[in-house]
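Side project, low priority. Logging it here so it doesn't get lost.
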Amino acid sequence: MFSSKKNSGKATYSATTLIAKGTVIRGDLSFTGAIYLEGRIEGTLRAEGEDACLTLSDQGAIVGEIHAPRVVLNGQVKGDVHASERLELAEAARIEGDIYYKVLEMAAGAQINGKMVHQAEAPRRLPAPEVVNAAGAEPA
């Protein structure tokens, strides 16, 4: 029912977690795969894995930060959104906070009260410089 097994080149998810309308979670939540939220979460949502996806329905709400590669929002968010790959905002999306994205798709009617920050590439960690002793030779 909630599986993203379309042939349009989008990622497929083997399992989707549903948080139903009327459910309230207070605290941080880490997840893998896909999560579909119709309820309310008060805390930080953090995806583990490069193919994770968070979908917020028009009835859902999040109070806290979101960190996930793919994020689809159609409800209310009070907090910053960090989408390392793709952020989709549907017409009922209401965000009070900054958004950080690589690719953004925004429908007419979506609202953002905050900064929009494009992030072309994730910051890379450079290797440590090689140590050279006073004689100009590398250590053994």
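Brief comment: Confidence is low (pLDDT under 50) at residues 1-9.
Revisit when time allows.
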